Design the sequence.
């Protein structure tokens, strides 16, 4: 920041943990605005600590975003892209499309496509030529392993990978690109944010049913509609109760982002974020 010519005091970096730094900042009277990205649990603590000073708080928290894949000629491509997108950043993206909804009659096709796609994702040292690296910490690695095992125990069909490290990786926090299918929306892997490279495939009977499943979540960070026709995909995405939606075709996408319910407060993007930070002032003059 100094090299860029930013004046002293405009940007200050304070490192520390939640009790030592987060709590004092959230509750301090001289801090006017808090912007936070992280877990829903931490977000609740921040909002609670900020409440006595009535400061503005914007947050991007957890997500369990649905990806409704429509029954059309782009089905194969969109299932593959959905799996690939979920594995980006080792699955550690708040808005990742972790719940893939496909027509019930095509679940078998989706399984074959997802298995082939996941098996082709290479995992290894991020300095090398690999598609996916490790997750952030040992604690996160263990959490993901526990949730994958939970999916197996609750009866979801394990389509690809599973618990443990990928072959040839005996140490490090590497997780196998995992896919579950024939998941029901009451299973833990469909309810809880895993924050790792795990896709769950759920079947739907109609578009209305798909939207009902998509909205049956405590989160609302993002939603996806994927189809050959952008307008049809967009119409589905708009019905998802999430302030961030993406409608896609194999070659086109339209995006907006923010969040609702236990996923976020406030907004993101230049216009909505700036209104949180900037405070308009009104003056009147007497003549």
Sequence:
């Amino acid at each position: 920041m100094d090299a860029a010519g930013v004046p002293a005091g405009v940007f200050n970096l304070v490192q520390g943990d939640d009790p030592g730094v987060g709590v004092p900042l959230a509750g301090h009277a001289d801090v006017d605005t808090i912007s936070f990205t992280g877990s829903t649990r931490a977000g609740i603590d921040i909002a609670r600590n900020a409440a006595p000073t009535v400061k503005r708080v914007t947050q991007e928290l957890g997500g369990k975003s649905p990806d409704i894949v429509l029954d059309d000629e782009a089905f194969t491509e969109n299932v593959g892209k959905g799996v690939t997108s979920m594995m980006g950043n080792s699955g550690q993206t708040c808005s990742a499309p972790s719940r893939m909804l496909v027509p019930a009659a095509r679940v078998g096709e989706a399984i074959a496509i997802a298995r082939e796609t996941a098996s082709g994702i290479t995992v290894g040292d991020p300095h090398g030529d690999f598609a996916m690296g490790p997750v952030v910490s040992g604690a996160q690695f263990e959490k993901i392993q526990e949730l994958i095992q939970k999916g197996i125990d609750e009866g979801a069909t394990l389509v690809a990978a599973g618990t443990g490290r990928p072959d040839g990786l005996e140490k490090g926090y590497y997780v196998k690109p995992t896919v579950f299918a024939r998941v029901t929306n009451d299973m833990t892997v469909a309810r809880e944010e895993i924050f790792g490279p795990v896709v769950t495939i759920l079947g739907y009977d109609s578009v209305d049913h798909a939207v009902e499943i998509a909205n049956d979540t405590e989160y609302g960070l993002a939603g996806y509609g994927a189809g050959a026709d952008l307008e049809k995909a967009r119409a589905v995405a708009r019905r998802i109760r999430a302030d961030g939606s993406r409608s896609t075709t194999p070659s086109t996408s339209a995006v907006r982002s923010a969040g609702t319910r236990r996923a976020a407060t406030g907004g993101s993007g230049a216009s909505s974020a700036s209104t949180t930070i900037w405070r308009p002032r009104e003056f009147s003059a007497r003549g």
Observations:
- The radius of gyration is 21 Å.
- Residues 251-259 have pLDDT under 50 and may be disordered.
